[in-house]
Amino acid sequence: MRIHLKLLLDCTSDAAWRALRDPVVFRAVSWPLTTFTSLEPKGFPELWGPGQHPVRGRAFGVFPMGDQIIDISFPPAPEGVRWVRDSGRGLSGPLALVTSWRHTMAVSATHDGRTLYRDELVFGAGALTPLMVPVFWAFWQWRAARLRRLAPGF
Fold first, then answer.
1. What is the CA radius of gyration of the chain?
2. Digit-coded pLDDT (tens) for 124-154
3. Are 54 and 67 in contact (CB under 8 A)?
4. Spatial distance between the Cα atoms of 35 and 61, rounded to a whole number of angstroms
5. What is the CATH number for 70?
6. Which of 52, 73, 137, 143 shows the greatest Cβ crowding within 10 Å of its Cβ?
7. pLDDT of 114
8. What pLDDT shows up at residue 23?
9. Given this model, what pLDDT does residue 67 score?
């Protein structure tokens, strides 16, 4: 299944690009619907780098969702566009029900100094996929609203 968002953020593309790689922003746009803690020995990195980053998720900070791997890469992009991709997977709990995951975020500058932000999630959970679509769609709307609200401070 595919969820795609496209919005304008009130910040420069450089600021948005840094925010997309910042675990603090990752946690801020998910809160309070989901909370995440790092399972890396030194905790969250200052900025996401390429590779696997294990986390533990909780719904509303209380209900265990399980552990997952955030698997970051920076694929080549067209001129003027910067992409980050998470091809991670759930390891335990409800997160492990998702059998395929590709989350790609892209930023590019607009003519007026703002940022065009594109966010695409392609996921599958076998026969459970149709049941998960409304949950992920609603969560992506929440993330988008939080990003718009936070962007001027990036």
1. 15
2. 999 999 999 999 999 999 999 999 999 999 9
3. yes
4. 5
5. 3.30.530.20
6. 143
7. 98
8. 98
9. 98
Instruction: For residue 54, give both structure tokens.
Output: 């294990």
The whole domain housing 123 covers 2-153
pLDDT in tens, 53-111: 999 999 999 999 999 999 999 999 999 999 999 999 999 999 999 999 999 999 999 99
- Count how many domains the chain has: 1
At 136, the amino acid letter reads F
Classified as helix, coil or strand, 112 is coil
Give the three-state DSSP class for 132: helix
Quote the CA–CA distance of 69 and 71 in Å, as a whole number. Answer: 6
Please tell me the distance from the alpha carbon of residue 36 to that of residue 64, in angstroms, as a whole number. Answer: 10
The letter for the amino acid at 151 is A
pLDDT of residue 9: 98
Angle between helices 129-150 and 23-30 (to 10 degrees): 110
User: C-alpha 138: how far from its chain's center?
Assistant: 14
Q: Which residues of 105-131 are buried (b: 16+ CB within 10 A; e: fewer)?
A: bbbbbeeeebbbbebbbebebeeebee
Residues 6+ apart with CB under 8 A from 15: 115, 151, 154
